[in-house]
Design goal:
- This protein has 15 helices and two strands.
- It is an all-alpha fold.
- Helix 2 packs across helix 6, helix 3 crosses helix 9 and helix 4 runs antiparallel to helix 6.
- The protein is globular, with a radius of gyration of 18 Å.
């Protein structure tokens, strides 16, 4: 059963609003002299965005029959904090040196480079505080510990940070296909894999199912990043909410510059279709999750 575009957009809006409420719940409280960092964290975290990662985590949990959704809220907040910290650091002068993110000034532009660095640090550390809070409160804390292990690994040297390292080192240099795929798989795909895997683990999915959702996350990550490449060339700053032409400015090789726009569009479609085929093989049903992945194919921002 499929959902209409209008129904999907309505449901997506409702879920996004729910996630914003969850994030507000987990923001630091009882702040005194360190109020600047709390403000910078909130500015960064509440700046909008698709909230894709917590959304994928929740929908994966639902797909595998999870029945106590409040238990996954800390993990949803944690993964969005990890994602946000990566954006804050990615925008820094030492990295991409971008002035706009999600339609407004980046954190380091508003609060200074020092607070930009510290805000990213604080969000990453606080993500683990929040997730651990979730682990100790779970009826089956072993599931929570495994979900946290996945988040930590996929965010670190074997995941997002590892991909970022290679991306930074090879910026301005000609890239081979396998190097580009490595960067995309780790820098973008790892947290999407973590979202789906953590949701599945929290619902009690087995090892075989976990490997399958990891593969789905990897495919979605590739599609998502290539679509990002396309939009960096074809979109506008107003529509995208961040500067376009950033890849060219930073002399980055992307899938779109390596293969051209036509082949990039085909790759997004191919990766997305394979992800959907694997989704169909999973137990249970979640038409919204299917529609969410489909929406990545023709997103405009």
């Amino acid at each position: 059963m499929q959902v209409s575009k209008e129904q999907f957009q309505t449901e997506q809006k409702q879920r996004t609003e729910q996630i914003v409420e969850i994030l507000n719940t987990f923001l630091p409280k009882q702040i005194t002299l360190q109020k600047t960092i709390a403000e910078a964290m909130e500015y960064s975290l509440m700046a909008g965005g698709k909230r894709l990662r917590p959304m994928l985590l929740l929908e994966s949990y639902r797909r595998f029959g999870g029945n106590n959704e409040k238990e996954v809220y800390p993990f949803m907040a944690a993964i969005e904090m990890i994602h946000t910290y990566s954006l804050v650091h990615d925008d820094l002068p030492a990295m991409d040196n971008d002035e706009y993110r999600r339609g407004r000034k980046t954190t380091h532009v508003v609060y200074g480079e020092d607070m930009g660095i510290l805000a990213g640090d604080a969000l990453l550390n606080y993500a683990y505080e929040v997730a651990l809070q979730g682990v100790v409160q779970m009826s089956e804390p072993l599931r929570g510990a495994k979900a946290l292990q996945i988040l930590a690994q996929k965010a670190g040297v074997y995941g997002m940070v590892g991909g970022q390292v290679v991306d930074v080192e090879l910026t301005g240099k000609p890239l081979q296909e396998e190097q580009l795929e490595f960067i995309y798989r780790l820098k973008t795909g790892a947290l999407l894999e973590a979202s789906l895997m953590a949701g599945a683990v929290l619902a009690g999915a087995g090892e075989k199912e976990l490997q399958q959702v990891e593969r789905i996350g990897s495919l979605v990550g590739m599609a998502f990043q290539i679509q990002d490449d396309i939009l960096d060339i074809t979109s506008t700053t107003k529509e995208l909410g961040k500067p376009v032409g950033s890849d060219a400015k930073n002399e980055k090789t992307t899938y779109a510059t390596l293969h051209g726009l036509e082949q990039a569009h085909e790759a997004v479609k191919s990766y997305s279709e394979e992800a959907l085929q694997l989704l169909e093989q999973l137990p249970g049903e979640n038409t919204f999750l299917d529609a969410l992945i489909i929406s990545l194919i023709d997103r405009k921002k």
